């Protein structure tokens, strides 16, 4: 091989080596960006409303998504957005982003266009306060404004009450469901939509008619159902728990539901202490006989039906098993023995 051919050969090999190094570096960079674009362990759960304003850059959007706990690494998101040409396709407006999506998936959602409706779910048992906090966390409104709107909101006769101990007249009458809200709706409007849905469900399910036929006020039925909802982990136990509460009411025994203590405390405690049950509060069903002043959350339809059609039995007590089911007993002695056996 002459000298010139040798030089050409070495030069080709050198270029090839450089090209290989560049490809390896690029693949490594892409792999790192993809890893940094995985937001599952970082993202806040649920659906979130993101408002992109006129003049916002990709960097601005990346920072906004990071602040909303949807994007772990703003730099990685900017790379993904640039790679997919987001800057040239994005329009100002509202976008709905699910927590846990990767950077690539978030870019795809935003490229498809902004939304006119935003999805929001009210889980069974949620209180007005928890619903308000969820609305705020998902970018749909102010928790304080929602709670203020619920304080005296009672558009239907069965919601009315003169009891001044009731914290929110709308408590218990926000129907647990998934809603598609108009983007930008006020807290008052959101509450109106959810309470109207409750009224529709009561009529269409026949619950309102059944309560009237039994001579029971719908407010009292919902009041009982809210405790049943929060006590029962499994729906098939709801009628039995409702039967226990109604039996206690019938004999003048306090309901003694931990759920009412948790409502007073404003949190879901795993274990309610003896000191908790001594709190002086109208909602304390350990200290006060009868139903609490009002519902302590939003019961689902199955809990409301259980309150209307409770199981007939002789049980007066129940205690939670470790798997979430309950052990039901007829006497206090049996109840204490069950507690000891479960540990």
Can you describe this structure?
The protein is mainly alpha-helical and 343 residues long. It folds into three domains: 13-113, Endolytic murein transglycosylase (Dna Ligase, domain 1), CATH 3.30.1490.480; 119-204, no CATH class; 216-342, no CATH class. The chain has 15 helices and six strands. The chain has helices at 3-36, 58-67, 74-83, 86-89, 103-112, 128-137, 143-151, 187-204, 207-213, 218-231, 238-250, 258-265, 274-277, 301-308, 332-342, and strands at residues 47-52, 93-98, 117-121, 178-182, 317-320, 326-329. It has a two-stranded antiparallel sheet. It has a two-stranded antiparallel ribbon with strand order 3-4. A two-stranded antiparallel ribbon has the order 5-6. The termini are far apart.
Topology:
Blueprint: H1 3-36, E1 47-52, H2 58-67, H3 74-83, H4 86-89, E2 93-98, H5 103-112, E3 117-121, H6 128-137, H7 143-151, E4 178-182, H8 187-204, H9 207-213, H10 218-231, H11 238-250, H12 258-265, H13 274-277, H14 301-308, E5 317-320, E6 326-329, H15 332-342
Antiparallel strand pairs: 1-2, 3-4, 5-6
Helix pairs in contact: 2-3, 6-7, 7-8, 10-11, 10-14, 11-14
What key attributes describe this structure?
mainly alpha, 15 helices, Dna Ligase, domain 1, 3 domains, two-stranded antiparallel ribbon, 6 strands, two-stranded antiparallel sheet, 343 residues
């Amino acid at each position: 091989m002459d000298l010139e051919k040798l030089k050409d050969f070495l030069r080709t090999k050198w270029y090839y080596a450089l090209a290989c190094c560049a490809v390896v570096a690029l693949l490594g960079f892409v792999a790192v960006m993809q890893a940094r674009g995985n937001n599952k362990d970082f993202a806040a759960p649920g659906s979130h409303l993101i408002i992109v304003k006129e003049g916002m850059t990709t960097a601005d959007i990346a920072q906004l998504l990071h602040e909303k706990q949807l994007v772990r690494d703003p730099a990685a998101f900017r790379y993904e957005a640039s790679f997919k040409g987001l800057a040239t396709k994005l329009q100002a407006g509202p976008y709905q982003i699910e927590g846990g999506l990767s950077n690539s998936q978030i870019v795809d959602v935003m490229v498809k266009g902004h939304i006119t409706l935003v999805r929001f779910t009210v889980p069974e048992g949620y209180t007005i306060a928890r619903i308000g906090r969820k609305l705020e966390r998902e970018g749909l409104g102010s928790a304080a404004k929602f709670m203020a709107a619920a304080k005296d909101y009672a558009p239907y006769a069965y919601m009315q009450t003169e009891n001044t101990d009731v914290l929110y007249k709308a408590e218990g009458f926000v129907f647990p469901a998934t809603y598609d809200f108009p983007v930008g709706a006020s807290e008052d409007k959101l509450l109106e939509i959810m309470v109207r849905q409750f009224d529709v469900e009561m009529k269409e399910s026949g619950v309102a008619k059944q309560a009237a036929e039994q001579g029971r006020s719908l407010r009292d039925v919902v009041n009982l159902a809210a405790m049943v909802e929060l006590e029962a982990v499994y729906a098939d136990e709801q009628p039995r728990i409702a039967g226990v509460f109604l039996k206690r009411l019938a004999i003048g025994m306090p309901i003694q539901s931990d759920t009412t203590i948790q409502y007073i405390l404003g949190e879901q405690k795993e274990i309610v202490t003896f000191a908790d049950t001594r709190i002086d509060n109208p909602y304390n069903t350990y200290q006060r006989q009868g139903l609490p002043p009002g519902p302590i959350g939003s019961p689902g339809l199955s809990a409301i039906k259980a309150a209307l059609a409770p199981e007939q039995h002789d049980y007066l007590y129940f205690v939670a098993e470790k798997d979430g089911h309950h052990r039901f007993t007829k006497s206090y002695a049996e109840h204490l023995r069950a507690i000891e056996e479960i540990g």
